[in-house]
Design a protein that fits this description.
The chain is α+β, with helices and mostly antiparallel strands and about 160 residues long. It is built from 3 helices and 6 strands. Helix 2 packs parallel to helix 3. The longest helix has 20 residues. The radius of gyration is 20 Å and the shape is globular.
Length: about 160
């Protein structure tokens, strides 16, 4: 009898875990903004943490802008992140948190080119319903001169 009780308890626990794992991420975005105010991931979600990704150099770019402008760098970084996500079986709608670091653009008086970043961001997320929670910050510098964009993301999905 004790074994039967244990077997039933384990079966019910497995059903509960399976039900939780089948739940979807909840993106809190009541105004359909370009970012979510919050994203709730259900218990049992499989998580992917992508390190800060920086852009590739642009062939033929001038020496003072070897990686291009903020828009081009953001497109490069998002392309690399998209490949990482796809390689792990994730998509853009699985991204629950994004951190964007921008270096000030000398051509913009040293301020970050938020509009340039958003142009490339919207090329990825403009048509998607689920957008990540996000922070965008200006930093003094990144790992190589001329780099103006670094982005890291966390993604979650059903196992």
């Amino acid at each position: 009898m004790r074994h039967l009780f244990l077997a039933v308890a384990l079966l019910l626990a497995g059903v509960a875990v399976a039900g939780a794992a089948a739940a979807e991420n909840v993106h809190v975005n009541p105004q359909n903004s370009f970012i979510s105010s919050a994203v709730k991931t259900p218990a049992g979600s499989e998580m992917l943490f992508v390190s800060g990704i920086t852009p590739d150099a642009v062939a033929g770019a001038p020496a003072d802008r070897p990686f291009g402008d903020t828009r081009a760098q953001t497109a490069s970084v998002l392309g690399k992140i998209g490949a990482i996500l796809a390689g792990q079986g994730y998509g853009w709608e699985d991204v629950v948190m994004m951190r964007v670091l921008l270096v000030g653009d000398p051509g913009k008086g040293g301020g970050m080119d938020f509009a340039g970043m958003m142009e490339s961001y919207n090329a990825v997320y403009g048509a998607l319903k689920n957008r990540p929670a996000r922070i965008t910050s200006q930093v003094v510098g990144l790992v190589r001169p001329g780099m103006m964009v670094e982005i890291e993301v966390q993604a979650a999905r059903k196992p």
